[in-house]
Amino acid sequence: VIWSPTGKACICYRVVSGVMLASGDPIGDPEAWPGAIAPFLDEAARHAWKPAVMGCSELGAEVWCREGGLTALELGDEAIVNAADFSLSGRSMRNVRQMVNRVAKHGYVAEVRRIRDIPPTELALIIKTAGSWLGGQTERGFSMALSRIGAPGDEECVLATATEDGVLRAVLQLVPWGADGLSLDLMRRDKAAQPGLNDFLIVETIKAAPGLGVKRISLNFAVFRAALERGEKIGAGPVLRAWRSLLIFLSKWFQIESLYKFNAKFSPVWQPRFFVFPSTRHTPRIALAALEAEAFLVWP
């Protein structure tokens, strides 16, 4: 973490393959962001690292480009659900509504709690069971993932659990986002359980939001969402259609289309997120580092 001289802002980062990769916007007062960006860039220059930012907001991209002379590329959109506006009624929510009702009819029960309110023995069982579902696979995530459960200091995180006859079948973890928000961190489920459990738990979490003092919930990040959405509409040009076809092809490995469709089911508000980097000639190196950080690319 690199701090501004005033201590009012900081930047969290990780160095991957010679790239100093920051995650999201700087934390703290936006007016103090330039004070954190300057020492960040100085640190990168001192070690000959290439600075880059993943998933920052439009304001963040503007500040990074202005202060560091960097370039920004719209990377995709973050799906945000306003809890007060969410409803399962209406034709657009038909698929989610049917899925949630089907899961409930099979006897699944949801609980949505802060980690601090879960007894230690139960939390230990949740951690052990959720880890077994992972099956040794590499957990993906950097820019929007905490990728741990129940660590000291995470007491304000929220766990949504689904049980069937008292047996744990699925877990969602959401981390605090500001004073009144949550951000979806991880989704794990028993592969033998009823399909639609993740939909069920997201809906139950949204329903429980007022009691948790939560007004907004950030779901997944949809890479190049606008291209996928516009490319399938009537009148889309050949370039846009070709770009969409390439993204669908890449979805076989990178879950591009599936994440977009999963998010879109909940009728979220889409907030653009940006990728910031020094220049076009460094793009391949930085892109590889980003894929490595997100665990889409795992070296032998």
What would your notes on this structure say?
The protein is α+β, with helices and mostly antiparallel strands. It has helices at 33-47, 58-68, 94-105, 120-134, 197-212, 225-231, 238-254, 256-264, 283-293; strands spanning 2-3, 9-11, 13-16, 19-23, 27-28, 50-56, 71-82, 108-114, 158-164, 167-177, 181-189, 216-223, 269-277. The strands form 2 sheets. A 10-stranded mixed sheet has the order 3-4-6-13-7-12-11-10-9-8, with helices on both faces. Strands 1-2-5 form a 3-stranded antiparallel sheet, with helices on one face. Helix 1 (33-47) crosses helix 2. The longest helix has 17 residues, at 238-254. It is globular.
Q: Tell how many strands the DSSP assignment holds.
A: 13
Q: Which stretches are poorly predicted, pLDDT < 50 over at least 5 residues?
A: none
Through-space gap between termini: 29 Å
> Given the structure, what is the number of helices?
9
N to C succession of SSEs: EEEEEHEHEHEHEEEHEHHHEH
Helical content (DSSP H or I, runs of 4+): 25-40%
Described by strand count, sense and barrel closure, the largest sheet is: 10 strands, mixed
Strand order, largest beta sheet = 3-4-6-13-7-12-11-10-9-8
Share in β-strands: 25-35%
- Structural category is alpha+beta
